[in-house]
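User: Can you predict the 3D structure for this chain?
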Amino acid sequence: MPLCLTWLEQTYLAVEIEELTPEAFRGCTAQEVANRPARVGNASGSIGDLFRVEGEADGSLVLEGDLCHVRGIGQGMSTGSIVVRGNAGPRLGMKMTGGTIDVYGDVDVWACAEMAGGLVTVQGRAGDYLGAALPGSRSGMREGVIIVHGNVGDDLGLAMRRGLIAVGGKAGAGFGRAMIAGTAVAMGGVGPGAGSGMKRGTLALRGVDPSELLPTFIGAGPYRPPFWAIYARKLEQLGLSLPPQVISGTPYRYNGDLAEGGQGEVLLWD
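Assistant: Here is the predicted structure, written as structure tokens:
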């Protein structure tokens, strides 16, 4: 049985637990995990004050309940797996370098910010700054894969350098803003300013009228990149259903942002 932490709903204050990752608990008994410190608002407590702790620390961590108050789940993780059966608070998977996180609910802001490896799947929605650069940082997501089945907020992939982010629903404003490289996909449309300041990389979009793009993007004609078939198969394997025209059809390509050299591309499907 994996290590299971069940939320006791004892507080509505912000909860901070240092190293809430599988590797941090490896080799610990359930009681030792329960005795680990936790910050609740401005007060000190323990994990056992907030969760019922069961199972064995075998590299897998299961969190159950509405954890919207719990910050930094999986932050900095490098191996193992986390399953969240409910909502997750800010900074889920921030700066993670490996392992997997599966969330059966929604995630808050700054999820996977500056992620450098691993796989994160969110069945619900995600807040602003998914896979983004933190304030003062030059680059956001560096490697890895993020899949969100629902909608996402603003500034997804801000200053993204590498990796793949795919959204089954709609994305907010600033999608792929200041992107350095990598691939970001949205199947339900995007808000204003998509690709603003992007240097390289690919935005793959469905449900966007060409008139919604910034004037610093110019049409380059129908074009199907060789890598897209591989990405489409991978997304399908990971559970993100794509429309038939996106899987096999040919999108229209736009190059930009011309204000940053025009080496990026936006692929539009009807």
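The chain has one domain: 61-269. The chain is about 10% helix and 30% strand.
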